[in-house]
UniProtKB/TrEMBL annotation:
<dbReference type="InterPro" id="IPR003439">
    <property type="entry name" value="ABC_transporter-like_ATP-bd"/>
</dbReference>
<keyword id="KW-0547">Nucleotide-binding</keyword>
<dbReference type="InterPro" id="IPR027417">
    <property type="entry name" value="P-loop_NTPase"/>
</dbReference>
<dbReference type="GO" id="GO:0016887">
    <property type="term" value="F:ATP hydrolysis activity"/>
</dbReference>
<dbReference type="Pfam" id="PF00005">
    <property type="entry name" value="ABC_tran"/>
</dbReference>
<keyword id="KW-0067">ATP-binding</keyword>
<dbReference type="GO" id="GO:0005524">
    <property type="term" value="F:ATP binding"/>
</dbReference>
<protein>
    <submittedName>
        <fullName>ABC transporter</fullName>
    </submittedName>
</protein>
<feature type="domain" description="ABC transporter">
    <location>
        <begin position="25"/>
        <end position="162"/>
    </location>
</feature>
Amino acid sequence: MSPMPTLLSVDALDFGYPQCNVFQGFSLRCNAGLILLCGDESTGKTTLLRLLAGELAAQTGRVAVGGVDAVQEPERYSAQVFWIDPRSDELNPTTAQAWLDAQAAKYSRWDANALAVHVAGFALAEHLAKPFHALSTGTRRKVCMAAALASGAPLTLIDDPIAGLDKPSVTYLTQALNSCADQPERVVVVAHHAPLPGVRWAHRVDLAGLGR
């Protein structure tokens, strides 16, 4: 049996803010599956997601998805990545449905049937006509995660997934993540301070003690 191909490659990544180094020589290799970035506050979880998304630029190092380099081929790289910060003010004037429609047009592997399942699982139907500024913290996050999971993006990035979620939604999220666990040619990276019970993680990265 041939080895599983590496889908996400991070090589010798250096990044820091003024007077604060976050990553020095950080490297990571991931095949398809669910990847957990864990660690306490200020260990760089969200920063790493933003670096993987191309929203931040590393001082040195390389990030690639499916062999596509984030710096050398930024447009091809961006087309393979799903990332949204549900706290972003840019979402506020847009209705949830209009934003979801825009995501469907953006991602070539978008799965409309999966989105319908996630909308039902997260109980979002009554909120789709509302603008983001009228949504609660938890509902904003659920809309963004429904899109992330339905996007089919080869690299899907999710930050702090259960913030503001009710218990039924946390239970559904576990099921939804596990439904992505065996999808070929897809890496789903979730940043959270601790493992979510019941999720079939393929790999766990503890940022408190790795590559820093």
